[in-house]
Each structure stands twice: as structure tokens, then as C-alpha cells.
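Recall that a protein's primary structure is simply its ordered list of amino acids. Everything else, from secondary elements to tertiary packing, is in principle encoded there. The following example makes that idea concrete.
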Amino acid sequence: MTILTVHDEVMPPPLGFAHEQRWLSNLSPETVAALVTAAGDVILVLDPEGRVLDVAGTGGGIPGLANWTGREWGELVTSQSRPKIQEMLGETGQPRWRQVNHPVEGGDVPYRYLAIRLGHGDRLVAIGRDVRAAAALQQRLLRAQQSLERDYLRLRQAEARYRLLFETTAEAMIIVDAASRQIREINPAAHRMFGAPLGSFVGQAISSRFDRKEVERVAGVLGAISAGAEVSAIEIELADDAGAARLAVGAFRQGGANYFLLRLSPALGAESAPDESRRVVAVVESMPDAFVLAGPDQKILTANLAFVEAVHAVSADQLRRQPLGDFIGRPGIDLELIRGQLAEHEAVRNVSTILRGIDGGREEVELSAVHVPGPDEVLGFSIRIVGRRLRDLPPTTRDLPRSVEQLTDLVGRMPLKDIVRESTDLIERLCIEAALTFTTNNRASAAEILGLSRQSLYSKLHRHGLVRSENEGN
């Protein structure tokens, strides 16, 4: 049992009754005993040497209280508390409260005692109060304080980690107060991008860091983020001829206030790129065919607007660092085959595959890809959606697969039950054509060979579109 020490307390000078003789002179011994007993949980009457002459009180938590009479007070407490007993017995001045511990089974019980000398010093009255409730409360307070200190230490460590990340990251970051639109913090990477010394710009309006013609665009983006909208990264001109940058904005709340986190990165093709390269980038971004650039790990680096719309994403930022296999080809099949072809030939053309959207939609596509080796190895994919074009073509009479290879090519493009139905139709049609050929287009004989009625054969001929291409038989 853990006992917390309640500090010894010096009593202030007592305020005496103005007419104590009037109030207390006629009290009976029983009334005096009741008053004294009410002052504490344990009341001891002691001789000058500390022997217990009488005992009263509830004695909560101390068994055998009635057996204390005749025993030395110092024998009833722990060895650590005996010096305090001697001090209380020898006090001649103003008494004070002291904590002592009584040994019991399972631990110690803390009590606070005040020893008051009666008459001319022949007797003492020790008033004891159980302080376990105060000790428990103090222990709870200590545990709460230790828990707060641990939480504070964790917060300090987390703050140190994020501060280190903020200061050492190569990405330019600016923290802006959402209410005043003033810069609160700016990391070294952002200072380098603006070509300014550390400590600059703090307290300035964020609009001062962008070209004048971009102020309204920046304000619009910040307003949209404040309203909870998702806004894609935009390319923007920086102030003081610092060049172009790609701006992405996020929002967070801290300490009851709202803030913006602005991330700046070099604009696509902006690093000393000639005008022709910039035009190429602009064309790729706006071309109707989907284009996606991936790293050697087949994770998306960037994508144009057509690819974003094709997979039903909100923005290119949502797709960045996502596995390309989540969107292109049958899982674990098509992209691995394409990667093998790229490793051998560095380019593939017009590969038929499927494009899957975030919402589960599927489209048939033709894909061409190129592998650009080197230190900054990348894979480029040009994707053209052909499923809509095929659906818009007029229906043909011979639209079934003609071979096992064509059937297996349907795996991944349609559910298994649809493939089985296609296979059944293919086999049925081939058998009917073989029977007609064998009987020289005699439908009665063909129906007999196939084990069908003539009416059932005519129905199947119509369903497979064979009536227009065959002459009527007997």
C-alpha cells in the first residue's frame, strides 16, 4: 500500500471564547467526551510518558482499537513514526498536526494527530484523524499530474519531429492564418524558392508572395478550401520574378484557429525548359486521349485531365503515388506483360486492355507505352478509349468469337457467366453450320442430325443470323 505523506501542519494561534466559563463550566463529562470524540476518528488520553490511559472513537481502518489501553503510544505506530510521537509528547509550545502510520494487516493506515496537554502537564489528549481519503486524493492528483507530464512530453516530441520535418523537407511549405491571410511560418525550402534569407515574410500577407495578376486566383483557391471544396493544384507565377510554381493548398485547425498549408513545387516543364517543351506539356495536359506518367515501381507520378476524367477521379493529386495496376488491365496480368515488352523493346503499341474507374466502372481501351531509362526512369502510357466507339458501331450478324483464343481474351473484360454464355452460343452456331454443310443445307436432315425439331432449328437459325446466308431446305 502506497502512503503519501501529508505534511505536518502548524496550527495557527487559537481564537478563544470570550466567555468560556459561561459556556463550558457546566458541561457534564459525557458531553465533554462527546465533543472531543467528534473532533477526530481516534481520541487517546495519555500520561506524560505516552502510555494510553483511555481510548475512544470509531477508529476506521484500525482493528483492535479497544485493546490499546495500557500500551505505549509509540508501540502502536510504525518505526518511522516513533520520532514524531516523541516530539508530540515533549512539546511545550503551540501544538501542531503530525502524520503517523499505524501498522495493520495488508499495509499501513495514515493518521494525523494533534496532542494537547491538559492541566499542568499530567495528562495529554491526542486527537487523530484518518487521512486515507486525503492520501488517495493526493495520489490521484499525482497520477493525473504524471499523466499530464507524459502527454506533454509526447506532444513535445511529436512537435519536435514535425518541426524537423517542416524545416528539412525539400518541398516549399507556408503556413497561413485563414482569418488574416498572413504568413505564420515559412520553411527554408520556401525561402530558397523565393530567393530570400531565412526569417523573411513572416507576418506579411500571402498575396505579396505571388505576382499581382495571380492575387485573385490565390484568393479564390483559399476561399474554396475554406468552404470545404477540393481544389486541384494550379500553376502560378511567383513575385519578384521568382518564376513559376505549382501550388497545392490544404487546411487544418489548431488551437481553435484555422490555417492553410501551402505547398509549392516547381511547375511542370518550368525549370529552364524552352518554349517548345512548355507547349508539349500543355498539349499533353489538354489532349483528349488519356496520358499517365509512372515511375519504375508503376506508381502514378502525374496524369492529364483526360485520364483523371476517365477514372472518375477528382484531381491528379488524388491519383499521385497510386499503383497504376489499380486502374489499368487485368490485375497482375496485363501490366506485367506490358512491362516485359517495354524491358525488351522499350515501346509497345495498341495493346487491347481495360481501364477501371474509382467507382468500379470499366472501359475497353487501346494502350501504347514507352520506357525512358536513365537516372530519372519513367514509363509513359497513352490510352485511347475504344469501348464507346465499338458500342456505337452498327450491329453485325457475326459478332460471336470465332476461336478459343478470342474467348480467353474476354477474361477480365466481362464476368464469367457472360463468357460461358458466349462460349455456348459459339459452340451451338458452329455445330449448326457443320450440320448444314454436311447435309448440303438440308434443314430437315440437319435438324435430325442435331436431335432438334425443325421448329427449334429454325428458331436457332434466326437467333444466330444464319437465315439470310442460307437457302431454305426441305
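The chain has a mean pLDDT of 80. The domain at 275-392 is CATH 3.30.450.20 (Beta-Lactamase).
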